[in-house]
Write a structure and sequence with these properties.
The protein is an alpha/beta fold and about 500 residues long. About 45% of the residues lie in helices and about 5% in strands. Strands 1, 2, 3, 4, 5, 6 and 7 form a 7-stranded mixed β-sheet that branches. β6 (about 170-175), α7 (about 180-195) and β7 form a beta-alpha-beta unit. α11 (about 295-310) runs antiparallel to α12 and α19 (about 475-485) crosses α20 (about 485-495).
């Protein structure tokens, strides 16, 4: 039976702050005997789906959460000198409604509340509190901050406010002990608060890296984030090496005599259950003219435009078109093709340059006839089944290149036609490749750029090269690594953050 569950965990998606890479974190959690673990990245939920899938693969129950930033005043207040600081608050989704509310809170925090950080406020928390369990967070939480400012009464008022917002046993006072003197002061006050208010306590460890020995690497990561070097005395740094994935036994040594705070972590984890459905397709609604279905209208457009591409269509063309239309209809993707062709037609009417089509979509005669692609699949003997295959049901993926100077017009058109609530832009994440990692670590360590650059240039220019692979195939890098202690330190550190 579990004695403790980690409910306050930062992965690499707490960008340049969390060192715990999801796959390695979950492997370590399994090794340490945890069957449940949370993800609570700072202000974002970028890593949630990856975390969920990786946890399920390992037989670990994923607990979905976020450590949100709470504005000191209203989230719309953005006055310099007053609103750049925020409080932390950990939110965990207890159920599907809670997950939806958490997503809404994080989205609103970016859209309406962003000022230095994505921020929520008490009004928004009250509106979307159902299905959520809240923890009072670390020393940067509102209640610990008030305690450290000698305002116990203010801390008590805020604790009762949060209890009112989230409901009985949905708000917990969070005990942490990373060996900081401030935490001892806060914890004493939290015990008193719990006695006076009936708000339960829960123990957490603020996980930013996996093992204790990762602390120096995390220090380097923070320097990269803040543009500092290890020699800077006034830099952001964690004061101890206790922010790692502690075992249940380690947590018991710290909090074993502190009432039910460990047991409460298990109770919260057991209450949290969120599932994701990755199978159901959610396509936007394409409005077809009266008298048509999605399938019949797609077919109508194809026959209408056929002679623009094939003035004298052969038997082979007709057969291929009928075959593709049948598969598209069978797989339920007629609406998708109609949406994409509509976008391309809009761009062409507005004289916005559109690319000829990339990837496996070039194998579709339907895409060619509709003007989505400009490559004749029959001429180049391209296979439709590489693009759509009824035996492997995947969403079609048509890559379209629009002129980057006018892509805003396309986005506006889509938002207007389908409703802005049905349109999203996606993020991509830049990762620290081998050479960049070496250069960043060298700068943080205060090594002259010319010396660091020499090391980076020895890394072979191969796509996707890693430091580990570079050491295997580059005799020059091997020699530097084994003969120079500084080079060895840079490379070892860089291999952990790349």
């Amino acid at each position: 039976m579990e004695k403790f569950v980690h409910l306050h965990v930062h992965t690499e998606y707490s960008l340049l702050d969390g060192l715990a890479q999801i796959e390695k974190l979950l492997d370590a959690a399994a090794e340490k005997g945890f069957s449940q673990i949370a993800i609570t990245d700072h202000g974002v939920m970028y890593g949630v789906v990856k975390f969920f899938k990786a946890a399920k693969e390992r037989g670990i129950k994923p607990i979905i959460g976020c450590e949100v930033y709470v504005a000191q005043r209203r989230m719309q207040d953005k006055e310099p000198g007053k609103d750049q600081n925020q409080y932390h608050l950990v939110l965990l989704a207890e159920n599907q409604e809670g997950y939806k509310n958490l997503v809404r809170l994080v989205s609103e925090a970016f859209i309406d509340g962003f000022y230095y950080k994505p921020r929520v406020d008490r009004e928004l928390l009250s509106k979307y509190s159902r299905g959520l369990i809240a923890l009072s967070a670390c020393l940067a939480g509102e209640i610990p901050t008030l305690i450290l400012n000698d305002d116990y009464d203010g801390a008590k008022r805020k604790a009762l406010e949060y209890k009112e917002i989230f409901g009985e046993r949905n708000f917990f006072l969070e005990l942490q002990d990373h060996g900081l003197p401030e935490q001892k002061i806060v914890n004493e006050a939290l015990f008193r608060l719990s006695e006076e208010t009936g708000i339960p306590l829960v123990a957490t460890n603020d996980v930013h890296y996996i093992e204790r020995e990762d602390a120096p690497v995390h220090d380097v990561l923070l320097c990269i984030q803040t543009g500092k070097t290890l020699q800077d005395e006034d830099r952001l740094r964690f004061p101890t090496d206790n922010f790692y994935l502690k075992t249940s036994e380690e947590m018991e040594q710290i909090f074993g005599s502190a009432g039910n705070c460990l047991k409460n972590s298990v109770e919260i984890a057991n209450r949290c259950s969120v599932e994701f459905d990755f199978k159901t397709m959610h396509l936007p609604h394409y409005q077809v003219p009266e008298g048509f279905t999605l399938d019949s209208y797609l077919e109508h457009l194809c026959w209408e435009r056929l002679k623009q591409r094939y003035p004298n269509p052969s038997e082979e063309v007709i057969k291929r078109l009928k075959h593709e239309l049948q598969i598209i209809s069978q797989m339920g993707f007629s609406g998708y093709f109609l949406i994409v062709q509509d976008l391309v037609q809009f761009a062409k009417k507005r004289k916005i340059p559109v690319g000829p089509g990339r990837g496996s979509a070039a194998g579709s005669i339907v895409a060619y006839i509709l003007g989505i692609t400009n490559i004749d699949p029959l001429k180049y003997d391209l296979l439709f089944e590489r693009f759509l295959n009824p035996e492997r049901v995947n969403m079609p993926d048509i890559d379209i290149d629009f002129c980057f100077e006018r892509r805003g017009e396309i986005i506006d058109y889509v938002a207007q036609k389908y409703g802005s609530e049905h349109v999203a832009q996606i993020a991509t994440f830049g990762t620290m490749a081998a050479k960049a990692a070496i250069r960043d670590v060298g700068r943080v360590m205060g090594i002259p750029y010319s010396e660091v650059d020499k090391i980076a240039k020895v890394v072979p220019n191969e796509l996707g090269i890693t430091i580990k692979k570079a050491l295997e195939i580059s005799p020059e890098l091997q020699q530097l690594y084994h003969e120079d202690e500084v080079v060895k330190k840079i490379i070892d550190m860089a291999s952990q953050i790349e």
